[in-house]
Amino acid sequence: MAGMTRALVLCFALLLAACGGGRHAATHAPAARPAAALPADQVVAPNFADAHPIDSWSGKPPQAFAVHGIDVAKYQGQIDWATARANGVNFAFIKATEGGDRVDERFHDHWRGAGRAGLRRGAYHFFYHCRPASEQAAWFIRHVPKTAGMLPPVLDMEWTPFSPSCTIRRDSATIRAEAKVFIAALTRHYGTRPILYTSIDFFEDNEMWKVQGADFWLRAVAKHPQDLYDGHPWTFWQYSSTGLVPGISGKVDLNVFAGSAADWGLWLAARGL
What we know:
The chain is of the alpha/beta class and 273 residues long. It has one domain (47-53, 64-270): Glycosidases (TIM Barrel, Alpha-Beta Barrel), CATH 3.20.20.80. The protein has 8 helices and 10 strands. The chain has an 8-stranded mixed beta barrel with strand order 2-3-5-6-7-8-9-10. Helix 4 (133-143) runs parallel beside helix 5. The termini are far apart. The model is unreliable at 1-23 (pLDDT under 50).
């Protein structure tokens, strides 16, 4: 019995470490599980850490959700996607485009690598407030291929106070109208309901809860989404920007899907994925 108790305590400690829990910030990713070929829909438990973990959440913590994933851009550099997949990255949103004239330098490498590793992958567009939404949608469509099994495309709308060329803040009605144009164009082309990513300030300033036709992916890295977004429904939650994941050098954004592993399968099936 004593041996069994020690084993249970050890397993629990390892689980907390894998999920990024605990009071002490991590400085590097956990020891990696070996890479292995896995079916795209097999849910793998996260073997992540967090450089700045939250000790407690007011609602259901991210560690309690089954399906974890990441979002990446050029800043993550080269990624060992097979290792990341084996260590609990079940999905990845990959930056593809920005505005109407920029493609992320690592998009194609990340897209191919994630696909070879068997991840569910989706592409996102960073919205530029100085170009019409129709031009930006056309730019995204030009560069992001329709690929079997891909996750719905993502529209990332935030304020851009540090942009070198576009810091304007248009009125909320115009912003929602532009979101509607972009969402409609992607729905027509990719044949599925897109995802809208946003942060709390942009969500509140522009009354983004009024936007129809998209699932929501909400950023909430210091408080639970239920506290920040007044209970607004979400499909994906970005809960950390300081994740540490085997296969990735440096920090990466961590996300969860809103339901169970079974719900994940149902959501994918409902989308025809």
